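thread: overnight batch results

M.L. [08:02]
morning all. the overnight job finished for the chain we discussed friday. pasting input first so we're all looking at the same thing
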Amino acid sequence: MNKNPIQEEIKNRAWELAEEHWQYVRAVLEHDFRENEESKAVIEVIGFHYKTAFVHGYKHGVEDQTFFMGYPVFDKKGNLIQRGEK
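M.L. [08:03]
and the structure it wrote out:
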C-alpha cells in the first residue's frame, strides 16, 4: 500500500503535538490529584483519550485549512476526494 507522504507527515506532527500538550495536562492532573495507584491509572486512561482526541481534531483542522485555502483534500488512503480551487 502506497502511503501519502503528506498525510504521514500530518499524522506524525499531530501525534508530536498531542504528546507535547499531554505532558502539560498530565503535570496539572498529577499536581491536582493525590498520587496513588488509582489516580495514576485514571490519568493514563485520560491521556489515551486526550491524545487520540487531539489527533482527531488536528486532522479536522488540517482538512478545513486545506479546504478553505484551496488545496486538494485526500482521504485516509491518499485518494483525491476534492480538487483545490484557489
